[in-house]
Write the structure tokens for this entry.
Amino acid sequence: MTAITDDSQRLGPRRRAVLEFALDNLVWLILLVVLVVFSLTIPRFFQIGILLNILEQSTFVGVIAVGLSLTLIAGHMDLSVESVMALAAMIVALTFGTGGAGSGLELTPAFLAFPVSLAMALTVGALIGLFNGTLVVRFGINAFIVTLGSYILVRGMVVALSGGRSVYGLPDILRVMAVERIAGVPLTAWALILTFTVFAFILGRTPFGRHLMMIGGNAVATYRAGIDVKRTVTIAFVLSGALAGLAGWLLASRTAGATANLGIGMLFQAFAAVVIGGVSLKGGQGRLSGVFAGVLLLTSIQTAINVMGMPPHYTQMIQGSLVLLAVLLDALKGAVRRRYL
Amino acid sequence: MRKFLRLCAGAVLAAAIAVSPISPASAQDTKGTIYYLVPTLLDEFQTGSVSAIEKFMGDVGYEVKSLDAQNRTDLQLNQLDDVLNLDPAALIIAAVDFDAIKPGIEKAREAGVPVMIFDRQITSTPSDLTSVAGTVEIGELAAGEIKRLLEEKNGSATGKVLQILGDPGDPYTLDIQKGFEDTMAGTDVDIITQAAMQWEASNAGSIAQDQLLTNPDIDLIFVHAAHLAVAVAAVLEAQGKAPGEIMLVSSNGAPVGLDLIRKGWEQVEVEQPLYAQAAALAMFADKVVNGEELTPGTYEVTGLPSTLTVEEWGPNIKIPGAVITADNVDDPKFWGNLQPPAEPVSPVE
């Protein structure tokens, strides 16, 4: 047994770059293989409409997964995103919906409902994010406990606000995101792409993103380097909440309203996507491109199940197996890196 | 910090006491307190059942306190254990899980507390009264209507139907599926079945979206709850379909389903007669609480002819589900129109 790496096993710079690239983008490779296998084996799977469906249906889990990644990279977590998404959707639906428990607010001119509802959803999300962030940062309470409490509390607020009733009949202007397309791609999918692009830039190219990585890696050292750790982590929670609000706004648009159980189960899908995408649960590591691939991978599997008509009981088994596989692959990647890079 | 936490704990405790469903003083003017164990409040039918049961039981002199099991079997069993210590006049149970609640029912009856079963029939152990619409029958009714719609469209009962269940772990949806598929057996209708996990609406929308791409010749979509139909209609609208171009049938009769019928997206809603199911329990509540025998026969429950039989699992009153179409959608008797019968329920003598 030896802990010393044999230099003869080290690769040359070119091979090393190739291997590093492959390891960094392994989840994309898996996604590609899965899509090819599905296309070859499932009748009618390979068509542009199905691929667009995968993209569109990835939106909600994808947007909350971005927020979840921010908090995880900072060394914390946000379990409340699913409930915050539902609350944002319900508040928008209760305000503008004309059926069920909706109050049917009409603004003049009508297009104002679009920015106003979006602002409402983002504000609701950001406020809950601020609440979570404050309890975690200022009072030093564990993020798991704080956001678990918020997860339950906020879902309770959804039920209480709606009285358990559905809300429907959103005005046409609020359905634009679900109905309209640009270059054949649904606007909701564009929202997903834009979200990932913007936040990948923020994480990779801005001081805030770098600070977040540093805090997740070693908060004490980052603090000693003169970085305002508390402020940065609080902002991460606020952004996570606001993104959940955005997801809720998009979900209300897609379902033309809201129900008390809207979005239930998406937290676990988001967690699975984040883990598959290579974000470290210990903090300090992760790239949103991997998370994007993770979300697309999970949705592809769900879509394949829909198209095949496979009993849905298998969905969760497959998703759970994928998460375990991702963890094993992550460990394998670490071993390969230590040995060859 | 400690002061803040103490303050929070105090506030939570005070709030819990304030909203606690257990308030003995308010039960003094009634015949007693009946506890209703509702499986979830994330479902419009169940939410409606709480107010309906409270109203009708109030008509016959009982106070009702409802406890939400949040779709958790373990929590419902815990709730049952807890309320048995509160000297209840009776329990009303809409089970999260038909089998898991069985020991709880047996325990309650051994303790001398009558148990009434609402909506979700339990046949594995005796109870004191069961009030059901018959979920299998709802599936059969839906099948009859779907055959009619396909005949009107294609000239005969042929075509392709996408059936979207609720959560595959919920016996309610499996019973509807059984009734539907058994009745459709032998026809030339191709049925594709998928399940919306956790009864979540956007899951139903995604299934419809995917299936319409791979099976563009789908004639009709049958969903097992009206709130799922909303997401499906939203997908159809987003795909540029006109109302009725792909037919939509749903069950449970929630307000959203009725609204979809008015807008032309949905053709048929098979109603679970929520008001009548709740009223039936109230009509027989005195007899159940006093341990009197229930006489089999036909009874009129909120205007619906309902049959009380004595089965292996005890007295069972079955209320027929109703078919709602554009012709009768505004009838106030449907619970989806949210107009509970003004006339109070009278106890059966």
